[in-house]
Design goal:
The complex is a heterodimer.
Chain A: H1 2-25, H2 29-34, H3 41-52, H4 55-68, H5 70-90, H6 92-98, H7 103-110, H8 114-147, H9 151-200, H10 203-213, H11 225-238, H12 243-251, H13 255-287, H14 297-305, H15 308-345, H16 352-374, H17 381-405, H18 411-429, H19 439-457, H20 463-472
Chain B: H1 3-19, H2 23-26, E1 28-29, E2 32-33, H3 34-59
Antiparallel strand pairs in B: 1-2
Helix pairs in contact in B: 1-3
Classes of the chains: A mainly alpha, B mainly alpha.
Chain lengths: 478, 60
Amino acid sequence: MIERVLVLLYLAGCVGIGIYASRRVLSSGDEYWVAGRRIGTAVNAMAIMASLASGGSIIGVMGLAYSRGIPATLALFAGAVVGFPLASLLVARPLRNFGRYTITDFLAWRYPSPIVRLLVPVSIVVAFTVYIVAQLKAAGITATALLGISYEWALVIATVVFITYVSIGGMIAITWTDVLQGLLMLIVVVGTAVAVTWRSGTPFELMREATAAAPELGSLAGQDVSSTLGFFVIWATAIPVIPHIVMRVFTARDARGARLALNLAMVAYSVMILAAVLAIVPVGKLGFPGLEDADQVFLRVMASEFPAVVRGVAVAAVLAAVMSTTDALLLACSSALTHDLLGGFFKWRLSERRLALLRVASAWVVGALALYWALSPPALISRFYTAGVGLLSAGLFVPTIAGLWWKRANRAGGVGALVAGVAVYGLTMTGTVELGGAPIVLALIASALAMLLGGLLARPDAPGTLAAVAALHDEAGP
Amino acid sequence: MRRSEGLALAFLIVFSIVSFLPPWRELEVAGMAVFGWLMAALMLVSPALMLLVFRRGGKR
């Protein structure tokens, strides 16, 4: 009973924040999409951490470590962590100085073409809908395991709550709820890790004991290099261009604040992931060997080691992880549909009032679709959403980085790189074409080659465009 | 890009490449492949290094 009360309080708090924020945001695109560009460094850092730390980062990371071993799992998450320094060095300052809302805005400005205006938002909606489904599964299995309510009801409740506060509260509601959710996740995961390690001795003793009983936990045996490398590269190259992180760069007060926030967020995120993988997973492997659904390991540890109150807080923490990422994904999907597709590609010109209604409606449509799909979810959520993120990385990384840093980058190269990356990743990932090697590496190579050919063979961009790109790199902005 | 930022970027790329070299997949410390420990170290070192670089850059 106490667990349900805690979770209800938490959900009511999120909706309350959404309603409060709606008074400020519904009248302005700048307020709705990027919180008026005045989020401070510490708040932004916690919000970035919470946005990245999804249900996959609590349920999924431990499920993956349990089933595939700790080293391969750390490769995936280390890739994400390395992606943030890359983002802070390569894109944070120029994109913050660019001063618009979405990654599509930048790419469509740098490579003016209807293909860019169409393909980028469509890829975002496809990839993020998959990502949202994975998050909803995490919410459902957590509530079922620890609260005893049905998977379907858990999905419906969580979905209605986060769509409500995202659709009416925009980026401000997301930022405030993310700070609350990030703190909750850190406290629960790190606190659990400290508690279980304390009972078992030192972390090294715990690891030795667990790997002696289950050697596959610490080993890379049976893991081919290309898949481990593929996981690492997907996340390292996705972070600098992934829309829900890029939108956080746009919310920062200035470029320096954006850069600091990205790296502060990663310090907290790394501590949380390492606590989960190096302490909670070994305890789970020792206590519950042979779990059929590896994603259950955290929940089984919580259910066996802690009293009802702590379990209630743990459910709230997993829901927080799910919702803090899903809300940002939903906002990114909503912006891709309304701002990028309807406003950018189809050139709809609507009044501010109609735009506000459209933003709310698009969030509900995407959320409802994801909910429908999540009712019959796939196994092993980390792998599933990593494929979706790979699609974005394959298509957006080379055009974005080259567009900012290579003077020969031009429209032909940018469009070619985008199409080649998405096509090669899609074909190799689905097994339609078998080339050998990690699909993301092949896709990035194809994308880079297309950029190179376009840049060297096609007409260069006008000097005015190059001067505008150069101005984005100035400390004070253009 | 400042020189210190370029050097930090180069360090992270080299660290990542070295971590994926074959010997670290077989060697074990405390029951886990050294590759796993290197990934764990990378997770802590990379943001800490960037914070140092940006902090120094901000003071100039």
